[in-house]
Design a protein that fits this description.
The complex is a heterodimer of chains A (about 500) and B (about 150). By secondary structure, chain A is mostly helical. Chain A is about 75% helix and about 0% strand. In chain A, α4 packs antiparallel against α15, α7 packs parallel to α15 and α10 packs antiparallel against α23. The longest helix of chain A has about 35 residues. Classes of the chains: A mainly alpha (about 500), B mainly alpha (about 150). Chains A and B meet through α9, α10, α21, α22 and α23 of A and α1, α2, α3, α4 and α5 of B.
Chain lengths: ~500, ~150
């Protein structure tokens, strides 16, 4: 396992990678702090421009944006009570109360420290667990793989749509969209309506940009324009108000570590993602805190714990991608797409075929975690300015960047039309409560799922009973039903708690 | 329109889509796929379509019998319709009328429709963005733009 450490470090440690990862973290903080934009849009927008880079540099840039973006969602949440991303909504409750009390600096510092702990915790977890899990995954046969994919898709659908059936419909629609194009076994074109360009399937990048970025622009144009943003000045605070003392932070450590564990665990499960982990850890902090009455009124613990959980999901959410090829969250789906675009197949074989790259990837993640910590202090003022950029300036720029990025990939006008169509589909899906991430993840998993299904039937002489004759496959199928039920119940409970 | 009615319509549309496609692929003659039935190209999509139809019906019935529907669905605002129209036009005319013309006009229209009224911003944003993007992609990334 560790024989690749030194080559991995040497691959990572060069000026170009360090510069791009720094640029990524900076861009991520800007994207994350602007309400309406987030880490996913940031990664998706930059993705087409990475085609011209080496895979290690490209992944460094994307990881930087990811980590920076996830952290930065808390900045506007704390200062303006506007979460930059849904997962930062839990932070806003206590963070904004602290800001109103003139202690915004304290809240921001607590958020940065908690983010660093959460990030490093999940980086270490990924490094320790991923390779071992991949070894196990290599022993899994097609029936088990199909059952595992079904398990992943069921829970992604169950937790991500407005209700159970809408989540699953989004997932099944993604699988159907993935079946457009050439059949993996026979090579026959399906559902292409004679359009030659579709014989290779729906192109991933235009679909991704449309579903995540263009649909978000449509959603944002629906919001009222010109609403004033009230900013509480952090600079007017006294030093005592903005500085976070060890005596104030130390009591939060048990909550932070508990939140890290919760965040990493939820992050590693395909489906629930950072928002669930932030709210679950916030609810647990409220339950186990020594001062539960203070949570929600402006407590450092109430800022640190969801932030730690939220950041702990970052690297943990990459565990299923790297070990099984299953992207469990929208951002993991984008990163999986980035790996595919660069000719790297995510899944257990990645540790055999691209071990050096994976280790450079690990170093990049650890470096990005520390950069987020450093840039977190430096970029706060820039982030506040970014929050104030007028939407009427910002969204036309993002809109045009989506088109240029998509066109840059193949220099093909059809890609722009496909992206626009998926933008409309994504907008309608979001408006109707269907899960866009479930669609995208299912789209990515579709071909693997189909080939695993057909291989399983080949092994079982065409009998579907093959899936119930294999104990691991049965276990995954049972798990799919149980986890979908319990995750849905958990989500309903959070809803009733008002989250 | 109420969310309940909207979900019933969506559920019916999903079911209808699945049924039509299922019938279509069942009657289609495929060029390949002479092996066992499960290896044929339509086998896996057929299963997907059956599940889709069942889920569509589930949505319809859950919408009919659920008590949790309280609010109405927000209609699509004219500004969104306009932005969608701009996006479609930009996608179609991008290669026809060149990057410069389409991008400048699209940026201007979008900024204006989103509420930008400062004349300097309305002129400077489309022009500077187009020039910056053209030169950075053409000479920085060596990407050809029409």
């Amino acid at each position: 396992m560790f024989s690749e450490l030194v080559p991995g470090f040497l691959l990572f440690f060069n000026l170009l990678n360090l510069s791009f990862i720094s640029l990524g973290v900076f861009l991520g903080i800007i994207f994350g702090s602007i309400p309406g934009l987030n880490a996913i849009i940031g990664v998706a927008l930059v993705l087409p421009f990475t085609f011209y880079m080496e895979p290690d540099t490209a992944i460094c840039l994307l990881l930087g944006i990811y980590k920076g973006g996830v952290y930065a969602g808390s900045i506007p949440a704390i200062l303006l009570n506007i979460p930059g991303a849904p997962e930062a909504a839990a932070t806003a409750q206590d963070g904004y109360n602290l800001t109103k009390a003139g202690k915004g600096g304290k809240a921001l510092r607590a958020s940065i420290y908690a983010s660093l702990i959460g990030n490093v915790f999940s980086d270490i977890l990924l490094i320790v667990v991923a390779a071992q899990l991949a070894k196990l995954a290599l022993k899994v046969g097609p029936p088990e793989m199909f059952a595992l994919l079904l398990f992943a898709l069921t829970i992604i659908g169950a937790v991500s749509g407005a209700n159970f059936s809408k989540g699953l419909i989004a997932g099944i629609a993604g699988l159907f969209a993935a079946s457009i194009g050439m059949d993996v076994v026979t090579g026959v074109s399906r559902f292409t309506f004679g359009i030659f360009e579709l014989s290779g399937g729906i192109p991933f990048l235009p679909m991704l940009m449309g579903m995540f970025a263009i649909s978000e622009i449509f959603i944002q144009t629906e919001q009222k324009i010109g609403e004033g943003i009230q900013i509480h000045k952090v600079s007017s605070e006294t030093k005592a108000d903005s500085k976070l003392k060890w005596e104030e932070f130390a009591p939060c450590l048990p909550s932070i570590f508990r939140s890290c564990a919760v965040g990493a665990l939820i992050g590693a499960i395909p489906g629930p993602g950072a928002t669930t982990s932030a709210f679950v850890s916030y609810a647990l902090t409220r339950q186990f805190s020594k001062n539960p009455e203070k949570i929600g009124t402006g407590s450092i613990e109430g800022v640190a714990s969801p932030d730690a959980a939220n950041n702990a999901t970052c690297s943990a959410s990459l565990i299923p991608v790297l070990t099984l090829g299953i992207p469990g969250s929208p951002i993991a789906a984008v990163i999986a797409g980035a790996l595919l675009i660069h000719g790297i197949n995510p899944g257990p074989m990645i540790f055999e075929n691209n071990a050096t790259l994976i280790y450079s990837f690990y170093f990049g993640m650890l470096f990005a975690s520390f950069l987020v910590f450093i840039f977190g202090f430096i970029a706060i003022r820039t982030a506040i300015k970014a929050v104030q950029i007028s939407r009427s300036i910002l969204f036309p720029i993002v809109f045009i960047l989506c088109f240029i990025g998509t066109y840059a990939n193949n220099s093909r006008g059809l890609d722009l039309i496909i992206m626009t169509l998926f933008g409309i589909v994504g907008y309608l899906m979001r408006k109707s409560g269907f899960s866009v991430p479930a669609f995208v993840i299912a789209f990515l998993l579709g071909p693997t799922m189909e080939s695993a299904f057909k291989q399983s039937l080949l092994i079982g002489d065409g009998e579907l009973s093959i899936f119930i004759h294999r104990p691991i496959a049965v276990a995954f199928l049972v798990l799919a039903i149980l986890s979908a039920y319990f995750l849905k119940r958990q989500r309903d409970r959070l809803k009733t708690l008002g989250f | 329109m109420s969310k309940r009615s909207w979900d019933i319509i969506i559920g019916c549309l999903v079911t209808l889509f699945a049924v039509i496609n299922f019938i279509a692929i069942s009657f289609q003659e495929w060029a390949g796929g002479t092996g066992p039935g499960f290896m044929k190209p339509e086998y896996f999509p057929s299963i997907i379509l059956v599940v889709m139809a069942i889920l569509g019906l589930t949505l319809v019935f859950s919408a009919i019998f659920s008590n949790s529907y309280i609010s109405d669905i927000k209609p699509i605002s004219p500004r969104v319709m306009f932005t969608i129209a701009v996006a479609i036009a930009y996608a179609f005319f991008f290669e026809v009328f060149s990057f410069f013309i389409t991008t400048t006009i699209t940026t201007f229209i979008l900024a204006f429709s989103l509420g930008e009224r400062r004349p300097v911003s309305l002129i400077m944003l489309p022009f500077s963005l187009t020039v910056f993007l053209y030169f950075s992609t053409r000479f920085g990334l060596k990407i050809f733009l029409p």
